[in-house]
Amino acid sequence: MSTNPTAPAVRLDRVGKVFGGTHAVRDVTLDIRQNEFFSILGPSGCGKTTLMRMITGFEEPSEGTVELGGVPATGVPAHKRDLNMLFQSYALFPHLSVADNVAFELKVRKLRPRAQIGDAVREALALVRLDGYGDRSVAQLSGGQRQRVAIARALIGRPSLLLLDEPLGALDKKLRAEMQLELKKIQREVGVTFVTVTHDQEEALTMSDRIAVMNGGRVVQVDTPEGVYERPASRFVASFIGTSNFLSGTSDGRVVAVEGLGALPVPEGGAVGEAHLSVRPENVGVCGREDQVPPGHAALRGVLQQSVYLGSAVRHHLTLGDGGTLVAETSSADTAGLTAGGPAWAHWRPEASRVLTE
Amino acid sequence: MTVTAAPPAPVPVPPAARTGRARHRAVTFALLAPAGLTVLALVLVPLVLVVRNSFALPDAYGGIEGGFTFANYTELFDPVYLKVFGYSLGMAALNTAVCLLLGYLVSYYLAGRSPQRQGLLLLLIIVPFWTDFLVRTFAWINLLSPGGPVNGLTDALGITHGPAQWIPSQGASFVGLVYAFLPTAIFPIYATLRGVDPSLGEAARDLGCGWWRVHTRVLLPLVRPGLLAAALLTFIPTLGVFVIPVLLGGGKNQLVGNLIVTLYTEFRNQPMGAAASVVLLVLMIASVAVLGTAARRLRRRTS
To answer: What angle do CA A125, A130, A135 make, to 5 degrees?
Structure first.
């Protein structure tokens, strides 16, 4: 399959997939750019795996079209697509040695003359820092080493696209942090478009150039990690990525009037009508008296239920006048003058809050 | 804390324990005796008799005269008998090959279904398998008879015109053999294939394998232990079959099983029948040894 170097690596146009009458994926339109590290992020059952399987060719879309490198992929079987996948279970062939696993695609697709395969395998194993492991059997490797072999096997044929299914899910915490950086490094080195599918927001935030957030079969937001975190498009995104406080009320574009709590200033030009004010705990400050609230801040009076020491921060749980709770995280120094069960004022810069209509 | 432990003195086995062990052994023997005696009476004694008879001289009335001779074995080298052994081995090999191929395809299809569907389909394979061997073979006589259901189908498709004489024939006999042993081949292959991670097949496709190479390069090598077990379970019993060739093949092209029956009953030559039985037994043991060695070598290579 020849591809156009200027076209997007993947273009999904109104793609849908129906399984037994229910939509697993619905109306997804999305461009993934060349050489981008792209993440599809969502809770389990949101359709992200189905979406990925339609890109690999393991599933055909029921609606819409998939284009790979500017070429329509409809009807092109998986083994004829110029892309590879890193399976969650790694899917290494247990009857082959490490070297034979890595060389598999070169032999099947006859990409290199037989004499050059050995060098290509050594090069691929060096890329994932497994020099000299070629003769081992797959059963002799640790989980992290298996993943490295799987990466070498998937990249040896230099596909224009690599799909990674929950790439760090099976690794322990320490290895995960290491692999996050390493995947990013490998991606820069080989210059291949990486598309990962994950339910782990931290993984998506640290590795990706852009993130598509999925929920209920739809893509609800596509943005940079910073954009998704700082400017969530909906209540779902604001709560799925990081944590948020939500206050429901009516917005007139400048203030959100929350019943029982009063009017809270919000950034100019926001939505009008029924809306949720969303503010992240780390943007909320807490003080003991009203005159300590910095000028221009949105402020709410409440009762401090408890403060939890987290090391780098202190998390305060406040009960508000309408019975709801608000969570604030402040640096440890700010706790003076606060007592559990006593009055407390929560406050934030209006620009740190978002007005969300969904 | 101070420890003043004397070196442990050798503990003499108390007489009670010794009698306890003896009683234990006696109970074990008592429990094993019924099964042991059954095997002795129904397997070992007849086997010894058959081996003894295979070296004996026949009397004129179909009995055994005694004595000792190798003539029964040398006579089996007569081309008439050699042909039967050759034909049997060939049929068993062909039947094994067809059963392995069909068994693999059926197993592959089964393993790809949903768990509920797999259960139902397996039941559909197992239930006829539990039905009596003879009844199932008779069923094929009806199915393949002139104007029978299969004939009706081929007529409707324009393959045949009018009643077809398929029974008795070598072909019908072979269909019967495949039908009889297919489930035996499916079970071990299916069991092995179910243990293979389905993402391995997808990984093969992802790395450039079309349908054929997904099987030849990945799935078949991984189910080889199941294929070997299936081969063992198909090849050896096929060598001993005698009902199917009689009912569906008209008894013309005989298998070793039929030869033995003929030697014992029609020819009333017990020593030669015994010799043929011993040769069949040796052939079976040899095939177990060959396939068993292959399986062991496979295990050593993959572990």
So the answer is: 80
Residue (of B104, B110, B284, B92) closest to B178 by Cα position: B92
Domain membership of residue B13 (yes or no) is: no
Q: Are residues B223 and B124 in the same domain?
A: yes
Residue A87 has its nearest CB partner, among B199, B213, B218, at B199
Would the CB atoms of B199 and A95 count as touching at under 8 Å?
A: no
ipTM: 0.82
Cα diameter, chain B:
103
B274 and B239 share one domain:
yes
Q: Domains of chain A, with CATH numbers?
A: 10-235 (3.40.50.300), 243-356 (2.40.50.100)
First to last CA, chain A: 41
Q: Assess contact for B151 and B219: CB atoms under 8 A.
A: no
Nearest CA to A92 out of A47, A144, A166, A34 is that of A144
Cα→Cα distances A322→A167, A211, A299, A316, B286, Å:
44, 36, 14, 18, 87
Pick the residue from chain A with its C-alpha nearest to B220. Answer: A95
Instruction: Provide the domain limits for residue B40.
Output: 19-66
pLDDT in tens, chain B (303 residues): 444 445 555 555 566 666 778 888 999 999 999 999 999 999 999 999 999 999 998 887 778 888 888 888 998 889 988 998 999 999 999 999 999 999 999 999 999 999 999 999 999 999 888 888 888 888 898 898 888 888 889 888 888 887 888 888 888 999 999 999 999 999 999 999 999 999 999 999 999 999 999 999 999 999 998 999 999 999 999 988 888 888 888 877 788 888 898 888 888 888 999 999 999 999 999 988 988 888 788 776 654
Interface mutation target, options B197, B207, B299, B301, chain A, most CBs of A under 10 Å: B207
Strands A218-223 and A245-252: unpaired
- Regarding whether B131 and B178 lie in a shared domain, the answer is yes
